[in-house]
Amino acid sequence: MSRPRTFRSEAIVLKRINFGEADRLLTLYSREFGKLKAVAKGARKPQSRKTGHVDLFMRTQFLLARGKGIPIITQAEMVEGYPALRDNLMQMTYASYMAELVDKFTVEDDPNRPLYQLLSDGLGWCVLGDQLPLATRFYELHLLSLTGFQPQFFRCTGCNEPIQERDQFFNAELGGVLCPTCYAKGKNGRSLSSTALKVLRYLQSHEWDMVKGLHLKRPLQTELERIMQHYLTYILEHNLKSVSFLRRLRHENTRF
Predict the structure, then answer these.
(1) How far apart are CA 1 and CA 217, in angstroms?
(2) Verdict on whether the full-model pTM lies above 0.85
(3) Fold matches, 6-81 and 84-252
(4) Residue 8 to residue 10: CA distance in whole angstroms
C-alpha cells in the first residue's frame, strides 16, 4: 500500500534497538500498512515526549514523515500500554513470543488487518495472565491461518482421506496430519494423540470466546506445544529466541 509523505497509523511496537546517540529504531506492525520500520528521534532522552509512547508492545497512534530513508516518527500518542506486561516477566515473555512470531511471518508493506487484531488481542490475553499456554496455541494456529501456513487437521496430507478419531501422526513438511496407513508406507511423522488432534481442530475452527473456557491437563499442553513448535521451527528454519527463554523461565516457575 502506497503511503503519502506524511501519514498516520495505529501500530504495535514489535522491536526496538538503540540508534545513534539518542534515537530508537522501531519495528512496528501497523493496522493500515503492515510491518514497517521507523525512527523515534530523541526517544532515549528522559525529557522526550515520545519516551512513554514507543515502548515494547505499546499500541500507539503514530504520525510519521517519509523521506529518502526510514520514516521518522513526528508524533506518538499511546492507545493501549499493556502495563501489566512490564510487571510480570512470564507474561512479558509470552508477549515477546507473540510479537516475534508476527515479525518472523511478515514482510514490510504487506497489510493484514486481521493479523493486527490478533496481535492486539494476544497481548490482551497475556495481560490477563491466565490460560497462557492455551492462548498461545490459539494464537499460533490463527496466525498460521492468516499468513498462509494453516496446518491441515481434517484430511490426511498423504492420501487426502478424512482423518478418523484415533491416534495419528503430524508431518511438518506436508503441513498437516498423516494417517497411520500413509505413515506405515514410509512417510515421516510425529505421533499425535486423538485428544490433541481434537483440541487442535477446535482451536483452529473457533473464536477465542468459545475456546477460553477449556482447561487442559499438563501432559496435553506439553504435547500441543511440541507439535506446534515442531511445525513453526520447520517453516521458519530456526528456533525463536523467545522460546528458549520461555522454557528456561517456566522451568523455574512450575506453575506455568
Answers:
(1) 45
(2) yes
(3) no
(4) 7
Do 17 and 66 form a contact (C-beta atoms < 8 A)?
A: no
Give me the residue spans of the domains in the chain.
6-81, 84-252
Q: Are 151 and 169 in contact (CB under 8 A)?
A: no
pLDDT tens string 161-208: 999 989 999 999 999 999 999 999 988 899 999 999 999 999 999 999
With cell 514490510, the residue in question is 108
Q: How are beta strands 176-178 and 190-192 bridged, if at all?
A: unpaired
How far apart, in whole angstroms, are the C-alpha atoms of residue 29 and residue 130?
Answer: 25
- Percentage of the chain exceeding pLDDT 70: 95
Q: For 69-95, write each residue's pLDDT tens digit.
A: 899 999 999 999 998 998 899 999 999
| CATH number of the structural domain 84-252 | 1.20.1440.120
Q: Copy the grid coordinates of residue 57.
A: 508492545
Extract the C-alpha cell encoding 31. 493496522
Q: Domain 6-81 maps to which CATH number in 1.20.140.10, 2.40.50.140, 1.10.1790.10, 2.30.30.100?
A: 2.40.50.140
Q: Which residue bears the cell 490463527? A: 142
Q: How far apart are CA 145 and CA 100, in angstroms?
A: 17
Query: What does the block give as the cell for 18?
Result: 538503540
